[in-house]
Amino acid sequence: MDTASTASVERSAIRKVAVRLVPFVALMFFINYLDRTAISFAGPNGMNDDLALTAAQFGFASGVFFIGYIVLEVPSNIALHKVGARRWLARIMVSWGVVALLFTWVQNAEQLYVLRFLLGVAEAGFFPGAILFLSLWVPTKHRGKILALFYLAQPLTTVIGAPLAGALIEQHGVFFGLEGWRFMFLCVALPAVIVGVITWFYLPDRPADAKWLTKEEQTWLTTALDKEAKAKSAGGDGQGHSMKAAFTNGRVWVLAVIYFGFIYGLYALAFFLPTIISGFEEQFGTTFDVFQRGLITAIPYLPAAVVLYLWSRDATRRGVQTWHIAVPAVVGGLSIPLALFMNSPAATVAVITVTACAIFAALPNFWTVPSRFLTGAAAAAGIALINTLGNIAGFAASYVTGFLNDLTGSYVVPMFVVGGLMVLSGVLMVALSRRGAVDPVVDGTVDDDAPTSTRAGGH
């Protein structure tokens, strides 16, 4: 096959992956993120009062999700690697859908804690599994674009989900007399079960199984991916494909700390932004109904989706550079505490929008880094390990923010903690790059002329 024909097959194959797989996996992610953050909409809109929750109890209930999630994250991703994404992701979705449905009938704080913990157990492995699945379908130079399209689901979950949750919460008593927040939990849980069943039949495990690819496209994808896998395995100490490489590679652990800062900021916003917005009424003398609160909550995330797409597009064109990750981390870290000192709801939301844009600009580009030096079982374990340790921030952000708010009577101190951790992520990303621990990228591909010590296996 000549060069022109190969380029044509490449474009066609990547386009089909982007059209056939990414929207469906993004839909799964949309449902996933909505189910885990539904508590943030329910809390200030009836649940906290009905269950008599303090801010610390609400924070603990929000964060205890991550304990079960963290414990089972790596085993879940290894299981996905062994049995295939189609079966495992389908199992995860149905499991969490069933647990999420039970929130409809929760009666007290203790039951809420148990259900949030079980939801984390059920969801464990979904996000790193989805990242791994998409990474196994496209070569490095196309990976940033594909992950950016996938990641659009996260801010769009709030853009669409916040007003939707608000509208559902307003439907008091329409279904067997359920309070609005209980009805909301019911409605956001059912799609997980339905889409989980569809996943079993829809997702192919690898290019060779995709009937919508031509033979030439299947061959090109398989060859390109196999070539990259062999290059990673042969680099450095030759262990880029083993599980040991994931647990002993210093880069994996530093990336986990960097991810911790991003996730701390993400969930501090996700769980407490609706509560902060509800506080506008007392602080500024304004009044919003539940649907209006949902719309205000959604405002920062629509620009965030646009910035995510444009920033990732630039990263794909230039090749992902350190500043594509570090600059948003610093901007987000400086902006989030600043939001608390604005003198109007509009100014506060505007600064929070900058924070949301920064977090979502960094995340898809961040996830291109681990797969540059890990493959096979190491990629499965490494991506899960980074996500596992990073998601400790999901618990910490929820509980610590609520605890510090109860202790100090405001969100000033907890938001400074958020900002400091995000700035630290940016500093660590720069330090990792300057030590040669992240592979150089040229035009979206790993620079094969980089010194061996900076490629797979180097510490």
From TrEMBL:
The chain crosses the membrane at residues 17-34, 54-76, 88-107, 113-134, 146-169, 181-203, 252-278, 290-311, 323-341, 347-367, 374-399, 411-432. The keyword Transport applies. Pfam families: MFS_1. PROSITE patterns: MFS. Residues 21-437 form the Major facilitator superfamily (MFS) profile domain. It is found in: Cell membrane. This is Nitrate/nitrite transporter NarK. It comes from Actinoalloteichus caeruleus DSM 43889.
